Amino acid sequence: MTLPSILFYAFIAVVSIQIIYYLSFLFTFGVKHAETRLKKHIPISVIICAKNEAENLKKNIPLILNQAYSDFEIVLVNDSSFDNSLEIMKDFEAKNNNIKLVDVKINEAFWGNKKYALTLGIKASKHDFLVFTDADCIPNSKHWLAHMSSGFSNQKSIVLGYGAYAKKKFSFLNKLIRFETVMTALQYFSYAEMGLPYMGVGRNMAYRKDLFFNNCGFNSHMSIKSGDDDLFINEVANTTNTAICFSKESFTISEPKTTLKAWILQKRRHISTANFYKLKHQLLLGVFYITQLLFWTLGISLIILGFSWQWIIALISLRLVVQWLSFGFTAKKFEETDLIILAPFLELFLITTQLSIFITNLISKPKHWK
Fold first, then answer.
1. pLDDT by residue (tens digit) across 268-316?
2. Domain ranges in the chain?
3. Whole-angstrom Cα distance, residue 18 to residue 55?
4. Which of 35, 54, 163, 296 is deepest in the core (most CB within 10 A)?
5. pLDDT of 337-357, one tens digit each?
6. For domain 44-258, which CATH number applies: 3.40.50.11690, 3.30.390.60, 3.10.450.350, 3.90.550.10?
7. pLDDT, tens digit, for every residue of 224-234?
8. CA nearest to 163, candidates 209, 117, 132, 196
């Protein structure tokens, strides 16, 4: 058998695996409708950990205070900021009786570790149900807390939400960031629906306090700088205790990075935690990424070689149609429809960037969160 023939059969296998993944995503999440029934307001503690976020705190805390929710507190955690974040937090605390301030001093053992600061914030919270977001995030509506809290039940102690990024006109980087965010959400929502929850994003997620303490908090990965969201969820989430919330009113929106260098540094920190996921999640995510990479590598190689090009084009087209359906339904849910037509090009750029990040992380470890 010739080398082109071997590559061709390998390409058929890769396309088949990709189609299985995308059809699984499509039918478990892509065609799913968001739950819009709101439940009775349960007492909620909103935890916001901030390090040098003075301007974002000043701008965004009023939007959270303005939530149409009857019983909630905001726990502001100052993680050893050296700007005037602490003063702004104190001012909010003085003017609002539902704001509690936790001022985390520099600790040599835990310096620069967001998990330590978050742990102190969780301990200081007075309610059993916790909602997490970041200082640079704004709720997409006044009903953000109502929608997120409605995911809790006697069985569900974790609620995974969607953290969007703001749109910027005429920016390819912005489209790339938003594409990566939609693809990540498509996967973690789909896996959760299939009974295999593996991560959430700290920009928008919730869980019960007793789940945190029964797991000894972040103790098993406290030395890892990232992972206060995904590693914790990977540890505690299971088939029965995880709900998803993706109604438009439940989104949070953050300002994206504006330079490629800053975004790559951020992704280096995020990707560094994947090695600590459960093995089954590493395998599922790894096979999906590897077959994505091989789809483009083998497809382009076979076209260049001119081997059965009609079949190659047909297989590429089939996979792209299935991808467009899966990604398209999801992008519509997340109000990211401008990305649909560009999905193949954004995917190609994203997987090559991720490959370079994987290689870079093998050479040197990324720095702490701020």
1. 877 878 889 999 999 999 999 999 999 999 999 999 988 888 999 999 9
2. 3-30+280-361, 44-258
3. 43
4. 163
5. 999 999 999 999 999 999 888
6. 3.90.550.10
7. 888 899 999 99
8. 132
Contact (Cβ atoms closer than 8 angstroms) between residue 245 and residue 151: yes
